[in-house]
């Protein structure tokens, strides 16, 4: 099979490396990116077959076209694939993506009548670029697939690619996906930024000196690519907003506990922390944490 | 020198192990805890010299008494040291602690006229008990010292203990300490709990299935000991409340960005994420993260 990757940073690069490692010979990979830096590095690393000089040349003859750019750039590429690039798209090709939000992207592709299957690997890190790519990034991680009305053969071809890189395909409606990640992924990103603003915005010198691993963990997401964060916020704003409002309700209840007349009731606060921990203990993802 | 540790979980146990590893022969260590489990395990592990049957026997003859229990239990022990245990406290002994908040504890000890030097090692993990203790826990980490009017010789003796376990003593006013950790440590703890409540409180099945490393990091603090969290909240409520209010102001500004009439302005949001990242990049603790 022939794969064209448009954008070759952490995600696209990790797909390319994973195919070389886990499915040698099964896929021929061409890649193009706006700057060309990722494809050049990937050729040197032996991770792709062709560093194409243009998107049109990258996608010519491809069975699968993978959009591996931030959400807003995905929308731009979909417009181009529906427009000037359409002629280079082989009949029977399927286009997919790895963006963190799905409704806006799937709707744009469906409206443009592209042969499109949305995708989102549930993995990531706060580094970016081909240099940060990792052949093991997707192993045993869920990879959401939003069929968006595509033919079953097209969906299965994308699922085949996902399995080739070690991921576990998980079909889901785009709205269900966006609601779930608004809570477990996008809200934490906004909270990490809000925490940073609230604590470091005033520039407390002692706070910086005393920061330990808890602070590092809680702000890690805010160390990521701002363009990625902006694309996520712009294409999932309504559901992220719902999640922020739910957090505000919870914080207001914490304020009531902390500012209780006569002083906080330690037993009530302990019960509240214990209830939160029980919610997390029921979470299979967290249960193995720290073992 | 003779050290008595009251409470022998993660912190007390790590101090004991660190002395054995880094300063063999320099300290004789007796320990007592309410359940007796930590001291029994520590004797088996060869980490202490005496598992005392009572607090009175543990502190008899000690040069330094270390309170290694959660904040509220520290207050109780201070009352006992000022009361029934006073007679067992050797003349010239100094009492110190490792609790996460300092004002309430230092004030109680000063009011009780105990020879007290407050302390707080800036390190931790979300595991607890002697079994989780680690001889390297304090190495090269700041350890805040609040002299609280104690004689300089007493302060220096506590600083000597801190250096013996690899920590870096850092003298600070109790209020300055509590304000700094309210932002970089206690606010993150409350946010981790609030995030958990907001996302898992409704029990979204998809959210659990899709949770990845970002979610794990952002909720790690809420997996800690609820009694510890309650003690922190109860003894630093006013400053944590200030920090929560500052976060709410920031979240309200995020809501305004997300709910902007006509849709979010991606450039403005990108600039906001970039500004947060610059604040973090200026943070020496974070700069080496992920290297």
Supply database-style keywords:
homodimer, 291 residues, alpha/beta, Rossmann fold, 6-phosphogluconate dehydrogenase C-terminal fold, 2 domains, eight-stranded mixed sheet, 13 helices, 52% helix, disordered C terminus
Describe, in plain words, how this protein is organized in 3D.
Chain A has 291 residues and is of the alpha/beta class. Chain A folds into 2 domains: 2-172, Rossmann fold (3-Layer(aba) Sandwich); 176-287, Orthogonal Bundle (6-phosphogluconate dehydrogenase C-terminal fold). Chain A is 52% helix and 12% strand. Chain A is built from 13 helices and 8 strands. Chain A has an 8-stranded mixed beta sheet, sandwiched between helices. In chain A, strand 2, helix 2 (37-44) and strand 3 (50-51) form a beta-alpha-beta unit. In chain A, helix 4 packs parallel to helix 5 and helix 7 (174-200) packs across helix 11. The first copy, chain A, starts with a strand and ends with a helix. Mean pLDDT of chain A is 93; it is low at 285-291. Chains A and B meet through helix 7, helix 8, helix 9, helix 10 and helix 11 of A and helix 7, helix 8, helix 9, helix 10 and helix 11 of B.
